Amino acid sequence: MTHETSRRWQMFAIAAAIAYVFWLLAPVLMPFACAAMLAYLGDPLADRLQRLGMGRTLAVSIVFIVFLLLAVGALLLLIPLISRQVDNLVQNLPRYVDWARNTVLPWLQAKLHLDPRAFDTDRMMAQIKDHLGSIGDAASTVLGQLSRSSIGVVMWLTNLVLIPVVTFYLLRDWDRLVAWIDGIVPRSIEPTLAHLAREADAVLGAFVRGQLLVMLALGAFYGAALTILGLSVGPLIGMVAGLLSFVPYLGFIVGFGSALIASLVQYGDWNHVLIVVGIFTAGQLLEGYVLVPRLVGGKIGLHPVAVIFAVLAGGYLFGFLGVLLALPAASVILVVLRYLAERYRQSGLYMEQGRGDPLLAEAGVVDATGGAAADTIVSDAGRKEEVPAP
């Protein structure tokens, strides 16, 4: 084994060990991952304040206070709004059930020519109520155990307190942490990793900062438009549609379907349905032609199928932490794959010219350099036939 091969295996083993440790510690990494994301968002602001002449600690303190005030203000604004919307949804739930029973199911029976016994609404509603009751009992049991479990409460409060504390220290020492990581990287691969880090920083900056603004803008647009339309659950639908917009078309599908059903139940006419269609069409145009080009740009380049796969794979492997970090991780992986593809195109494996198909060359159709020959071909029956040269 050569020295170069041995070194590569050593680096592969180190990377695999680090990945395995992260996988083992995934259940306790949630506050640290959230804190790292907040520190990454706040570092450019702190650097800008430093360039104005402030010390690092003062600049970080100002950014931290701004983040804290924004978080507290958002909680004070959103919690009462969400509470009212959920109460409103629960109060209107019987109307949705009656609409499904008296409008949707008879229409399906008439159009699909199905056996009416297949749509025994009383039996279906009884089963739904039984399942809802069992879910409620299970939720009550889980919450009761959690409330009685001092360890669970302590862990939840610890995570809640750790996020701002870790965010402050990471933000204060961000530049030193980056320099330390750069200092321990093997010198042979440091230029390559530095190049990939710059590319990944550009991609992550475009995604984390830009996509967050897109989500907020779409949520505000949908919520305001549906509220002006008069839908009682309009703000809740708008917030959900904006929150899910980081997965391509998922926010649109969920929001549009929910708003469509809400408008049919609340108004029962086609005018409001057409207005809902216009609102979500305008939202898609706003997202595709204004928000994403200006706030996110074309640096990420993730295909919608890749986005959906990344979210599902992250959730399966690491739970909610995986869902939270799926798209940033996929963006970084995309940078690495682009680099590897470029290295592959410059390698001898890709650049070396082929010698043609040996079977056809043996038959005299293709010569050793891949060119055409004016000899013979072998027919299906196994006999040789003369063919003209092209």
UniProtKB/TrEMBL annotation:
Instruction: Give GO cellular component annotations, separated by semicolons.
Output: membrane
Does the record bear Mitochondrion in its keywords?
no
Q: Where in the cell is it found?
A: Membrane
| Coiled-coil ranges from the UniProt annotation | none
How this chain sits in the membrane, per its record, is: Multi-pass membrane protein
What stretches pass through the bilayer? 12-38, 58-79, 153-171, 212-234, 246-267, 273-293, 300-318
What InterPro entries does the entry give?
A: AI-2E-like (IPR002549)
Major site of localization recorded for this protein: membrane
What GO biological process terms does the UniProt entry carry, in alphabetical order? transmembrane transport
UniProt keyword list: Membrane, Transmembrane, Transmembrane helix
Family stated for the protein in its record: Belongs to the autoinducer-2 exporter (AI-2E) (TC 2.A.86) family.
Its protein name is AI-2E family transporter
Source organism: Dyella soli
